Amino acid sequence: MDILLKKKIAAVFGAVILAAVGFYYYQETKSDPEDQMNIFPSQAENALSADPLAAGEKKAPAEKKPSVIKVDVKGAVKAPGVFNAKEGDRVIDLIAAAGSFSRDADKDKVNLAQLVQDQMVIYVPEKGEAPGMEGTSAPSSGAVSVSQGPAVSQGSGGGGGDGKVNLNTAAEADLETLTGIGPSKAQAILEYRDKNGGSFKSAEDLKNVPGIGDKTFEKLKDSIFVQ
Fold first, then answer.
1. Distance linking the first and last C-alpha atoms of the chain
2. Residue 71 shares a structural domain with residue 129
3. pLDDT tens, 149-201?
4. Pairing state between β 136-137 and 121-124
5. What is the CATH number of the domain that holds 176?
6. Pairing between strand 165-166 and 81-85?
7. Is residue 95 in some structural domain?
8. Rounded to two decimals, what is the model's pTM?
9. Contact between 83 and 73 (Cβ < 8 Å)
């Protein structure tokens, strides 16, 4: 009788142990997928926090650097010189920066409403002044010369009344009309002019331009002038 009781007790005890082991194993296997699933959300959360765009933050737009516009104002103004201009400025704004018109200025020869651009020359002639540097002229690339009303064709602002070419206002097309001056030498003349305050002091200064020597100057001296 005692032996049978002991066997039953041992069987019950063994069953309890097996049940406990099985329950423990079941809990372990059940929790593993949850632990694995929790790994990825935490990584995603870290990635979101590291990326300001994903977190809803907006990058500040890059600031656009303003372009530098320099305009040379000459002639019958109170304080001629080279002035900084802003996008959208007009000739009248730059003349105001130069102290406004002088007493003898011929205002009717200048288009005050024209928009300015970099390297432009604004020349205000005096009343009764001979043609040559009237109006405003843009740089050689797409150069125009304006007196009143719409712009006229390129190169019209570089000639004098006697057919000579004014070295200080001539566009590339004007210079190429001179004997022995092709596109490369015309460009060299414009570059020299820009590097020396936007103007030639005398016609002889043309000999300082690379590629133009005494012989070339002798051929050109009767066809050019400086004003």
1. 140
2. yes
3. 333 333 444 555 567 888 988 888 888 888 888 888 888 998 888 888 778 88
4. antiparallel
5. 1.10.150.320
6. unpaired
7. yes
8. 0.37
9. yes
